[in-house]
């Protein structure tokens, strides 16, 4: 059961309260849900678009529904979870702002994690190479990527401010390790925000 | 490993029948009793009776879920899912499967004898609903000393019963698996059934349903009903792959030829005719009328003031729904409606659409992912 979690998921797993009710939107094969269930007695539910991921998650005994974050969140009642989690999925949605609004309606707090498009490697690639960045966290070419709304740390902060959401926590990752908040928009490969309405 | 030997208790084992003397109160307001239920059990109940799984069968199915069919000799209809080493395993579970009331494999139905008259009920049998079938199953479980179901599992019409279970008996069901099914019969579903019923009733042998005495049964009508229904169980791609436009081989011409007549020139015609003819050997035409009618009346939301979510507020059961991408009889959209209602009611729900070329029939066919999902879901309850 001691499966190694992706660093952003490990960070979320450390922060979620024992016994909380959690909705993991874009839960993949349920790695985070399983860790939360096994280590923190969390009542975890998942939403995942890919059928074979759902089959894998249900096969490990998790409650996961096949569906689309853009269209299916409306079916969850208000405040029905303590946390709604959106990890590495924000940039693949059609309307990221509306999806976060839905997360904050469904959950008391929302974790949102995404790859930072303004990381210096990506900037150099665009500045000197004149090509869309293809990096470890963004490994796909521009034409077959699922990431249709690339976002930077500062973009996201601006959205949070504009919508009047509250940031309860923020973490930045470089490789597998946490990095400082200073110049996160330049140096963080990955950001995790904990929001509240 | 041999399972615990079943006691001398004659209620348990293969090819059982129970006569339940307490009449059933039916959805129509009528009462039915005494009620005969034909059923099978596999495996043994554990000490705290926490390992009971009820399997619900589809329209033309029966209680022989995991043992050879007495008429056709074929293996149990869900042997891929139920059996030693399978997700539903008699080595671990006490498994019950009963013939629905209205059917013709030993449970009370139009072909069974009305004790009041000594003649078959025929069309004097009361019209049933899916809920009535579930009430009969609950009465059987009372008879077997089973209070709670660890799981109720069904595909197609069996899925309708499985989904109805926690709405009627919210405290008796711990988990519920609904495969290739729906929360209500659609206009298209009803339309196909009406074609089948009209074919049966248009057969001159049907005679208002009183055909039992002389053995002249409406087999032509029933065969047509089965042929039409069978098409809905398959997919266009599946039919094309299996038959295409290939012609039926004949002794004088193994590759087949157009006869410029109305014999079964095409392989698909020959296949359907065979399906129709073999079906009438094992099924009663009046039962077909009654069971299709029960399915048409099925609409769980309608029984709960129009709100499907309300139907599930009283239960703590976990749900698992599975659909197949080529099933156009009970398409994925129908399962999504159920999932959305379960989400709205806060129920623990899983749902996955699996890929299969076989259309609605996929739930009965080889599908390793289905077994993985069912196995994981059932074991998930024990975490």
UniProtKB/TrEMBL annotation, chain A:
<protein>
    <submittedName>
        <fullName>Methionine biosynthesis protein MetW</fullName>
    </submittedName>
</protein>
<dbReference type="InterPro" id="IPR010743">
    <property type="entry name" value="Methionine_synth_MetW"/>
</dbReference>
<dbReference type="Pfam" id="PF07021">
    <property type="entry name" value="MetW"/>
</dbReference>
<dbReference type="InterPro" id="IPR029063">
    <property type="entry name" value="SAM-dependent_MTases_sf"/>
</dbReference>
UniProtKB/TrEMBL annotation, chain B:
<dbReference type="GO" id="GO:0005737">
    <property type="term" value="C:cytoplasm"/>
</dbReference>
<feature type="active site">
    <location>
        <position position="327"/>
    </location>
</feature>
<feature type="binding site">
    <location>
        <position position="361"/>
    </location>
    <ligand>
        <name>substrate</name>
    </ligand>
</feature>
<dbReference type="GO" id="GO:0009092">
    <property type="term" value="P:homoserine metabolic process"/>
</dbReference>
<dbReference type="GO" id="GO:0009086">
    <property type="term" value="P:methionine biosynthetic process"/>
</dbReference>
<dbReference type="InterPro" id="IPR029058">
    <property type="entry name" value="AB_hydrolase_fold"/>
</dbReference>
<comment type="similarity">
    <text>Belongs to the AB hydrolase superfamily. MetX family.</text>
</comment>
<comment type="subunit">
    <text>Homodimer.</text>
</comment>
<keyword id="KW-0486">Methionine biosynthesis</keyword>
<keyword id="KW-0963">Cytoplasm</keyword>
<feature type="binding site">
    <location>
        <position position="226"/>
    </location>
    <ligand>
        <name>substrate</name>
    </ligand>
</feature>
<keyword id="KW-0808">Transferase</keyword>
<dbReference type="InterPro" id="IPR008220">
    <property type="entry name" value="HAT_MetX-like"/>
</dbReference>
<feature type="active site">
    <location>
        <position position="360"/>
    </location>
</feature>
<keyword id="KW-0028">Amino-acid biosynthesis</keyword>
<comment type="function">
    <text>Transfers an acetyl group from acetyl-CoA to L-homoserine, forming acetyl-L-homoserine.</text>
</comment>
<dbReference type="InterPro" id="IPR000073">
    <property type="entry name" value="AB_hydrolase_1"/>
</dbReference>
<dbReference type="GO" id="GO:0004414">
    <property type="term" value="F:homoserine O-acetyltransferase activity"/>
</dbReference>
<dbReference type="Pfam" id="PF00561">
    <property type="entry name" value="Abhydrolase_1"/>
</dbReference>
<protein>
    <recommendedName>
        <fullName>Homoserine O-acetyltransferase</fullName>
        <ecNumber>2.3.1.31</ecNumber>
    </recommendedName>
</protein>
<feature type="domain" description="AB hydrolase-1">
    <location>
        <begin position="51"/>
        <end position="364"/>
    </location>
</feature>
<keyword id="KW-0012">Acyltransferase</keyword>
